């Protein structure tokens, strides 16, 4: 039986290897093989301007359009494969992306940025018109008023650069299709326009998740004078697709991922509608260069999100009186969940002044900014009704129960944030200072007018770092900073006098030591971090600040090139535990769905005999993780392998690029992530082997 299994897997693997070999054998091009490493772009999300990433005392990950396409990354949820410190956090296919950085789950309302301004990520965020994706790892209190301590994700919009048109067509072996066009034009000497259009037919291998999405975006740049620039952009996007329901524990048993069909979607009732995301975003940015290197910038953005959130939701086992897992016989309760017409509107306005100064032997790169944001959430009544009993084979049929009898929550938030930064330099020594003060007002009320809450808070979050340029290639740094989160107790009578009251600002703290080496053919970085985040315990009658969640870890990343070969990779060792809790039994417990060891690696080959061809093999490994908060059940480690090929050539006066890739080459079966959300244990399997191919031409 074991031999048959191996042969069956390689029967599907060999065509992949043959196709990649054929692609290399047929390559003919006059292009020159690249022998140097790609330049490290500045990370705007860091907040210190145009400083190369390898010269900042901040751990960042940056991936541009080419890197994303080469690795087949089409959605925000897939960027977790870029770096070992990025992981999944209830990252359900067909839903909005949810991820972890350094073990902490990001908050989709507060940890995402677009060109540096805050956006709501409770939607499907498209990458088609993005120039690059940036991730800041660690405490983000200096860059954001309130946010999870894991880090920030910033989407940088693609801007006009010149006269070019690119068309891309793509397909996957599951039947998904893509068509996209990028049209970049100059209008006279002063104006540039860039139009991005894309459309996808979604037919994943995961059953009952067919759908479609499209995006249309226009960006314009108007150079008013040598010192003045006006930039505007507008984007509209739509996605309609059923989301994926997770598996769960079967009683006290962790089901074997080898026996579960990863293509089954338990959200497969005929009445289960798609989740629909509609997004409208627009921004306007004015930049004025002043005398002696000073610059002023005004940047405004508005975001309008509309969502229909619907699902045949598997949850708990009423027959065994357990609601955090499925029944031991493989059955579960099915709820008809519908929340139609959700509205989330965000507005932001930032004013910033940057410039240079000097005091004695020290040079200063100064920044002063103010950011005003407004957020409004309006919801209707929702349905969350018991509909029947389902089974993990996906065969059970239950009737719909769509009556919207449950209330929802409306929210309003206003904030004003002042930020000051100073980057001082004296020879090989650098000192980086950041300070942010936030004034916050929040209100919430149930859609029936009950449980109203309203509160104001103000807090200041500092950050500082020191750098030492040991050699032109080596830099050492140390940093310390704070982040903050704001929590209000639910306005329910069971919480007594505490109901509706805000907790004191929850301050996270991080210390980090790092080293970065950068030269033409290789670069590497090493960072040790210690993050401590206050923990809140909900007893049902009180909210208590109870000890902390402490994450200590070591990150390593590197990239090198020798001859025709290149190697890049990252690794994370993470020690994440609960500490100082009143209940000593939970001290030392590891948070669920957090892998303690992660490795990402990519080997590339650009054969000199076939210029224009790049072959890549990548490996992703994640260690075991706990399924339940009490650490009583653990899922196993997993490793997947993928192959990518890119071939560029010039023909008929046009540049062509063909890409071919296969993910999960050996069709590995394992539990990819094990989130514990909404009081319930979930299990998401690795996606099965998937082919993808595309061709693009520059006209």
Structural summary, described in words:
- By secondary structure, this protein is mostly beta strands.
- The chain is built from two helices and 37 strands.
- Residues 1-36 have low confidence and may be disordered.
Please state the structural category. mainly beta
Whole-angstrom Rg: 26 Å
Number of strands: 37
Strand content: over 45%
**Count of discrete alpha- or pi-helical segments spanning 4 or more residues:** 2
What is the molecular shape? globular
Task: Break the fold down into its secondary structure elements and pairings.
Elements: H1 2-25, E1 59-64, H2 65-70, E2 86-88, E3 99-101, E4 104-105, E5 112-114, E6 117-118, E7 130-137, E8 151-157, E9 164-172, E10 177-187, E11 191-202, E12 211-225, E13 228-241, E14 275-289, E15 295-314, E16 331-359, E17 362-378, E18 383-391, E19 409-426, E20 429-446, E21 453-469, E22 474-485, E23 506-518, E24 522-538, E25 543-562, E26 565-579, E27 597-605, E28 613-622, E29 625-626, E30 634-635, E31 638-651, E32 654-663, E33 671-673, E34 676-677, E35 680-681, E36 684-685, E37 690-698
Parallel strand pairs: 5-8
Antiparallel strand pairs: 1-7, 2-3, 3-4, 5-6, 7-8, 9-10, 9-37, 10-11, 11-12, 12-13, 13-14, 14-15, 15-16, 16-17, 16-18, 17-19, 19-20, 20-21, 21-22, 22-23, 23-24, 24-25, 25-26, 26-27, 27-28, 28-31, 29-30, 31-32, 32-37, 33-36, 34-35
